[in-house]
## 1
Amino acid sequence: MVFILVLLFIVIAAAIWFFATYNSFIGLKLRVENAWSQIDVQLKRRHDLIPNLVETVKGYMSYEKDTLERVIKARSQAIDASNIKDKAQAENFLTQTLRSLFSVVEKYPDLKANQNVLQLQGELTSTENKISFARQYFNDEVQNYNTMIQTVPSIFVAGIANFQKKDFFEIEDASQKEPPQVKL
Amino acid sequence: MPFTFVEIEKRKSRAILFAFFFLILIYFLTAYLLLFAVENWFLRKEAVKVLIPSLEHALYALTGAVVVAIVHWLNSTDNLILKMTGAINAVSLDPWDLYHQYFQNIVDEVAIATGGKKIKPMVIPSSGMNAFALDDFEGHSIIGVTEGLLARLNRSQIEAVVAHEAAHIASGDCFTTTVLSSLSEIYGVSIEKLKEALIRGNRGSNRGIGLAVLIYMILVFTNFLSKMMRFFISREFETRADAIAVKLVRNPLSLAEALKLISRKWHSQSGASDSLQSIFIINPQPNQLDEKESLLADLFSTHPPIKKRVGMLLALAHLDEKSLEESLKNFIRVSPIAKPVFSMEDSFRPENRWLFMQDGVWKGPFSFDELVKMNGLIPTQWFKIEGKEEVGMAYDYPQLKELFEKDQQDFKGNCPNCKVGLDEFNYEGVPVLNCSYCGGYFVDHYKINRILVRQDNEPSEEIKHLAKIVADEKDKIMRRNYKNPQFILYCPVCKKCKMSRQFFVYSYPVEIDRCTACSGVWFDKTELEVLQYIHDNKETLLYRDSAF
């Protein structure tokens, strides 16, 4: 009798622990998803700004068609990318092409004086900062989630309920690994 | 973020509960002491025996205290943010001001790092350096800085300061400080009013004075108790916010630099009263207690010693005091405003002559000046340059763009000297009106202080020379103006009002024209620059003689 009671107690305690852990997994997962949507909003914002910039710049830059085309191509690649890893790669490429575009803009005094270009450039820089902050927040959340998946005892719950590790939103370019210090 | 939203909400309700009971306690103690005083001194009939108010009386006092506490609570927490921003004179951003756009960007960026909290930026039009955060029941959050801070720190430092304030909001302690400050603010106001009334009503009857003195004493007492509210505002809030800020922007050095710069030079009060100090990043009133470390200081001070805070941040950055000094010495502030660069080559380019398509035939060629005089040209008309095959719409040619933009611009007012339309112009990021012919500026009165605070423009030798003359001649001009005040120009905005020729203020003796109706100011060419120069160097220019 006592044995059955003890067993029952253990089973109930284990069940409670299981559900509590499961719930905290779900909570963490939702936070990761929320963090991802933050990044997504900023990436979309950047995608929306680029055509405007290209339109404004096009009239001035007849000799630099290559650079513009690369930006447009990188943008459509970034839009098409589906999973996080591809997206990170495509967005990194887009950042690089944008940088080369801005360095070209520097060469055209007409463009540098153009209020529209200045404004767009400012907005893009700010969006870039926002992306890097959002990425930082996302990676923090992913780290929390992954830590929980890989540590004992929650690893058992993760195994049973089939929670998978999530990818970080990584940057490969070494020069970008510094804190965001882009000046407007 | 180390805190989930659920935890923050729990913290908030705990803070509210504590504050409310504390309020009741204050009022109960006050009422009880009052009762004690009245029964012992005013109503005493028998001999020396000290009376202790009965339980029944104490219950009355308690009921009264609860009622007063509820009224006080409702009064203070209604329109919380509006009241607080009003008390510290914070205003919304000017969407056309470039510095304000830049600040808006910074706040938006940091808000994302906290996980997407909605934060509204504000500014205090003061030349001091400080920053504050507010948060209310509905979760409306505000981060504000002074104009002085915007003009004197660089981007990463402002970012760090904003992150510190965002950390207050995200961790929920901003809410506690906002409510507590708002609760104690009412005492400050009423004491000021009572003082005034006491001084004015000095000639009243003795009894009236007695009553007033009694009320005054009660208020002083409650004020002391309300200072005890700081008991709840832990110094740890600040250190913790510093730590979270570093986690948000990953840049401890910038925050250390910002704290050092704020505390070193511009430790100004920015109009804040005593009870509001806890919402600021650095105590607006220099306080001996803040710099001490003792139990008493821990209980009553709202901010930990700057040295300790900076030391902690430097430890995070693996740096020491010396390297901070070094980096501050080499500190160069880059202006956040991208200035349009005009190349000389551009303006001396031989003029193109243009052909345009009308009714299916090419007309022209015309020079640009001839085109300006023509009516009926539209931006979507086909144009080409004489001698070239390429064809494009008018708006494709940057040079032709001006042709149309002039017409679309809405009319802002005429230059009082040249009688031609004024253009919008960004002077140090502040939107003002400018005459492109005589170079004068029209500035709305509330924008002038912003311009004075900012220091992006290097004054030329000519300006320095003029400023020196102005400073030397001020008494002469003053006398002349006093004898016959002059009204020469018409205000470009109010049209029919005359502007009076006067000193900006006596301490900055630059002659300007101020509209008698809207108090907007017309600066002739160089007057604004001279004013700026005098403002920034008044010690050397104006107070030279008084030093001896």
## 2
Amino acid sequence: MTIKEAFDTMEYGPAPESAAEALAWLVDGGDRFGHFIDGAFTAPGDGFESRNPATGEVLATLSQATQSDVDAAVSAARKAQGKWAKLGGHGRAKYLYALARLVQKHSRLFAVLETLDNGKPIRESRDIDVPLVHRHFYYHAGLAQLMESELPGHEPLGVCGQIIPWNFPLLMLAWKVAPALAAGNTVVLKPAEYTSLTALLFADICREAGLPKGVVNIVTGDGAVGEMIVSHPDIDKIAFTGSTEVGRHIRRATAGSGKALTLELGGKSPYIVFDDADIDSAVEGLVDAIWFNQGQVCCAGSRLLVQEGIAERFHTKLRARMDGLRIGDPLDKCIDVGAVVDPVQLQRITDLVDAHGNEGEVHRAACPLPEGCFYPPTLITGLSPASPLMQEEIFGPVLVGTTFRTPAEAVQLANNTRYGLAATVWTENINLALDVAPKLVAGVVWVNATNMFDAAAEFGGVRESGFGREGGWDGLHAYLKPATKTKRLKQLLPVDKPAEPEVTDPLDRTAKLYIGGKQARPDSGYSRAVHGPRGQLLGHMGLGSRKDIRNAVEAARGASGWAGGTGHLRAQILYYVAENLSARRTEFSGRLHGLTGQHTRTTEAEVDAAIARLFTYAAWADKYDGAAHSVPIRGVALAMKEPVGVIGALCPDEMPLLGLVSVMAPAIAMGNRCVLVPSEPYPLAATDFYQVLDTSDVPGGVVNIVTGSHAELAPTLASHMDVDAVWSFSSTDLSAVIETEAAGNLKRSWVNNRRNRDWMGPEGEGRAFLRAATEVKTIWVPYGE
Amino acid sequence: MNSSTKVTPDATTGTGQTTLPQVTHTRNPGLPLDMDWVRGAQANRSAIERRTATLPGRRSVKKDYQAAWLLKAITCIDLTTLAGDDTEDRVRRLCAKARQPVRPDLLQALGMGPIHTGAVCVYHDMVATAVDALQGTGIPVAAVSTGFPAGLSPFHLRVAEIGESVQAGAEEIDIVISRRHVLTGNWQALYDEMREFRAACGAAHVKAILATGELGSLRNVARASLVCMMAGADFIKTSTGKESVNATLPVSLVMIRAIRDYHERTGFRVGYKPAGGISKAKDSLVYLSLIKDELGNRWLQPDLFRFGASSLLGDIERQLEHNVTGAYSAAWRHPAG
């Protein structure tokens, strides 16, 4: 085209970024790569080809890790870990800082290599991915530096197995490696098989930084290698980002192993546009929401909800905007949408849209589509929530949508999903925005913006989008544990029925279940006699069953008003519970003495500790503050501490009153509702306790108590789809079954792995409980008039 | 800008003299003030800034395309002198530069015929001189008017000033709005004022200068843009060049989105002129890509887009020579204006 012709047509023309340096780096590596283990690359082994999705060209041949490779990586990590942790916060900070600087120095090489390998536009890898990586290491150098003074009493988990996806290969590496290293862990990381190259370049950088050998180990390969990491006995934690399906599998595979686990999974995030929004900006926001990285973004705003009155105008503007998108060579600096990562993914997207697109009105962007692994930006409007396209994660540049009438309906539709990763809200009305944001079931909410990320702001999901947060102080906690010594917990069994029951008082007192603020007989119609240590008959415990759990969960779900109340109100009620318990101190002490046969001094101490614990959480109820993070925008990123929802808990067996209170009080202080299964051998303290609850203005349904067999009730509680978290401090070995069953809806679980906890001591209360009782929701509110 | 009655299709692709494209769109007649529309206009600053901040990273024009775009930018420049020390000779020099903005040897090397700037923009007293100097070139003279830059002289004098400039041969009148009408939300007063200015212009085209740096918020910019278009503005323009903040990308985005909205709803095309602060060739490319992406190619012609600039041309000339020779250029190698 001549200049004259270009002058007349005003086309953009090609603006290619050179791939020369990145290709030279591959050639330097011989175009064949081994694993990075113990500070060195292994000889390339049998493996697979890594291709440029935009052209289909082979970029390099990578090695498929074997069990012995993984073993070697884990053992190198194990060997390095103690020394790495002992290096101290400042020592580790120096290395993280060096990594940050090296990423910055090689930023264009990383960006070009990422684009070659993944197919994302160079603009994104250059302007978004790599700068965020750099920022992540910087930020975590700071966390390492401050950790010892700010988080005393914590220690690293040990060796972390980290499995990352192909959509943000280097960025997800940074999100995994930086906090793990900052906290003093060592890692074995497996990049996705489609996109391992920048991880290998990062390995190179680790050597340039002089990182001690074995601190970072990188093994390449497919899901089988991931499986080896997940099931490796010498790994202490698994961190996974990827599909919900694989996340669920990992939850089951690690159940009961004692491995810590964080999962960052799929999403179908709503993008809500109210009728008073800046419509043009909301349309433009969708370019960053669903046409960012070809829509291969776990938190992509993929479900468009537009208020009915503006829907037609909005969709018209949106279609026009789509037609202006430029799709093509990812290395072109003038491209909006690049290549889909692999033909397999392209086929998946194509099949989903072909199968269900006709349920709505399909608009494909009018931009020319290059040959190869490309999918056109697509909008499908007029879908009903029942359409699979509105429910399933497409993971491609396909936006689906429907309309709503009122804010309440917007929230209802937004939350009508199994996922809960992110949400976007557009309105110029601050009242509306700040009313809707807390109601959205999501870990991240963007107001008048979308897909904003920063190392200082927690990111992560709820529901089947996973659990755990990445970024911020909360993200660091995912790589730490309390530095306390624990012992194996011995199972406490109920006192056997004596040959001749001793009845001390013939006047019967019937202990029932406590559901929805009412005493309820067990659905089973069965009871179990409870005997004191010397065989005296103390009463009967209703044998709760799955039906009772169902009813209790329903009551808890119904008491959602508790979450919306103020911390001050919850504090008042907790103080009132303490007051009423204190009034019955002698009686409870006697009950505990009767159940356990412990000395009265001991049982009095337990009651006093329970009263103190109620005070502790009454105190916390209005003090466990969120944060306004210092993120690099004009605006605020609010970290709101929200209740988890409905928490099911198997209470400690050994301290029938204090154990129950220790679990219940943090849960309800933070606005959760709970279903408690009290001490199995000593249940009658709990059934006395519901009378205290009854007289203390605790609203019905906030605390529900179902007595019975832990082993029998745990699976029901853990598998219940309407329970948001399950805790177990039971002396029965239930960790494996709970974690397995929790995989169903990927609820958070907190289990004791049959290790003890000193309920009388400081580890019996505090921030660990509060963290378990809350979800951090990050609400991004950019501002400016 | 030529009169809207002359319709010569596709003038830009003719050989030889690359003339201004003739106006082929119907002139915006305006419409009754629609307060629902005005009040419904929103402009979210953070989102708008994000769009404009990322645009230069999304759009890149290289090599020959870049040269072509820079030539296009020149044809869209209102070459301007608005200084108290302007003299007739100074204005004549400027007009000569407008007629021949790029060295002929460079144009030849680029394979381009002659081009000229979009207009020459002066104060009223220099209109006659400029009209004379541009005789037969097809380059219109634009006059800043209505008590430019503050617009606080008596209203009847402001209206009369338009008439005088039209009388003197100005084909385009750049009026300034009363910022106080925007700041007090008196949209009716703004509409009435603009209506009268438009009427006074007659066949001359009217550019409404919003002085966006003094309007307080992007929302006000959006609303003032709509009101001026409803009152019949042919162009909306950011600034006088005298405010402390002149043309910016966020302000431009707000104004061109208002233009787009106006076109979508009424079918009439209104032009856009950012003025002040655009002095680098690279900046002009970003502006052109913003126009192209938000409004479409139709707006990339001088009948719908102008740069109000005085030093931009010099930087573009240097870039064009670099394109031809591969060596970075120097200002003194290009004729002064």
## 3
Amino acid sequence: MRGMRSWVCGLATAIVLAGGAAAQETADKAKIEIDGSTTVGPIAKAFAQEYMATHPGVNVTVGESGSGNGAKSLINGTCAIATMSRFMKDAEFKAAVEKGVFPVAHPVALDGLAIVVHPSNPITGITIDQVRDIYTGKLTNWKELGGPDAKIVKISRDTNSGTYESFDHFVMQGQKIAADAEYVGSNGAIKQRVQSTPAAIGFIGLGFVGRGVKALPVNGVQPTNATVQSGLYPIARPLYFFTNGYPAMGTHLHQLCTLYLTPKGQEIIESIGFVPVTHYPPAGGDADRAEDAEPAPAKPAAPPAPPAVDKPKG
Amino acid sequence: MSSRPTTLARDGARRLAPPRRLLLSDRTRRVQRLVGALGHGVLLVITSSSALAVLFIFYFIARDAVPFFQLRGFAEFFAGSAWYPAANPPQFGAYPIFIGSLLVTLGAAALAVPLGVAAAVCLSDILPFGVRQYVKPVIEVLAAIPSVAYGFFALVVLAPLLQSGHGRTLLAAAWWCVAGPGAALLVVLLSDLAAERPVRVLAMLGTVLGGLMVLTLLGTWLASVGTLLVILAWVAGLPLTGWATARVGAHVGGPSVPERRRGLVRLAGLVLLGGTAAAIVWGVGSRLGGLPIDTGTNALNVALILGLMALPTVISVSEDALQAVGRELREGAYALGATRSEMLIGVVIPAAGSGICAAVILGLMRAVGETMVVWMASGNAPQVPQPWYNLLAPVRTLTATIAGEMGEADHVTGSARYHVLFAMALVLLTISFACNFLSEWIVRAAAHRRRGR
């Protein structure tokens, strides 16, 4: 037993030493730290993976501690890229400039906030006003919206998240969420709560909509890539990478921050359920996400998009 | 065989040698004394630094908490009921959050105290020694499970279970399991007592009912002032009622029933009390079975899990206290003709009372300070439940608020929003210090009293 333990200890020490040595080796080449929003996290992670695969020797670490923490880290100089699901606030900008940091925004992708309910909920659509009334506590029963007689269980993200701020901005518009709304700590937790609670309503990033929850059309517009990109879907927001100044051309940081402009970057963004900001690429390999979907209501203002893309995610 | 004499001789030589080697030169002695002093010094520094760390924590938390009170005053924080730290302008009414913490802790206590003390008694005096050797470590494993695992269980398993129809069934079943046997035991005990002195039983029942009535009236009156007062009144009032009942039982005599009528009185008591108890148990059970549970992430869910988490502490420490009572008291009780239950209830548990109190306080402090489970499964709604004992409403606690709000609330971005969390931390720290001192004091006072007698 003791022999085994010391053997394990030795192995662990060796690994730590080797890891340390490796980190030191790559530190000479490049080490990029990313921190911030849990919503932008998947994009940052996928970008980091792609970039490290094509540029061996570059080490990219991705933290997900919330938009506010991302800004904090950028201001304090502990990360090179702050991922944020909202724009920087006045106070953050002020603090940054005071510390000699000049935040530059790179809008890497678009994200729609989907209003989700349990799949068994018969409601087929909702308006922003109704969502607001639900969250302020004016509407308390699904009966009032033409649904079953059940008390609405309101689920919100914690006030600490960019998702909450977007919701607050687009939907609540200055009104306060009722005190009996529940708060959870992540998109995944909202999804978990909604898919296990028949009377629940919640809001999550479009990239997190999947089986188990039903995304409602808002003001008659189904949340899809096309409606978000065209600006038709009312609850949509850009997602940002923030850097200190524009990165010097040709550096690893520059290439990482502009990855979203390349076809490969757009492919990555699409594959994890977000919407690219630039030219919409013809859809490929989208079939797995197009299951059990109804066609979105055709809108004259919508840009011509390939039919496979015009479908909402299941 | 042949080597024996030599060994002996060598031993003899060894025994003779040491006194000469023990004589140290002055220099060696000085060095040794110096090294000794140095060692003492190092140990003193280490010990006092861990004590100082506590003071430093207090200081740094207080330093960041004071600006909040300077900015916003006390009234809003302690009495305001609107918690909107992110709004513009922000509101920092932490009153519902205090209530949430209190409610969750009381719920955990309601589960952990009876269960934990019963388990400790069972472990120390009822189970055979061999079984106890296996059961105690298993219970202590409960304390080793990381709280995030409990939280995950609460969120993914318990919450959906509670909010489905099974939740109601589960509640009703739990009520029947606990209240059924409990009521039966009580009825049998009381009717036995009534067979001898019916007036005493009537007086005791009257005291209980009167106490409950006073508490209800007081509660409805206080409800207009504040929920916190209602809860405190009940928390203080229930033990008081129990104490008053015990005093009444000890002092009210009344005429004793003649031997030949005792059977009749016992039967009457069984029928009357049993009928009442059955009606109450059945009424509450069917009420519980029909309750609508809107959401599974609520105070009840968290109270259950926190109760479970407090159990190992309560069991372990109370069991130690019960063991410390010693064999003599138990044997003395047996020698006076006590049965095992009389020995336990009349001698061992009162003697271990202070230790059990300390165990309960320690266990509850674990519940008050727990963060992860609460953040994941309490619903985090900053509201005062209506009515106050409604454990089925989602609530928000101090710890979860600190954990949840910390990210955005930096000194870079907002001042009051950052400092309010420290104000909460200060309140938590004060509560836990007070509890710690209280448990220390209880144990010490009991030890003092025992020595005094």
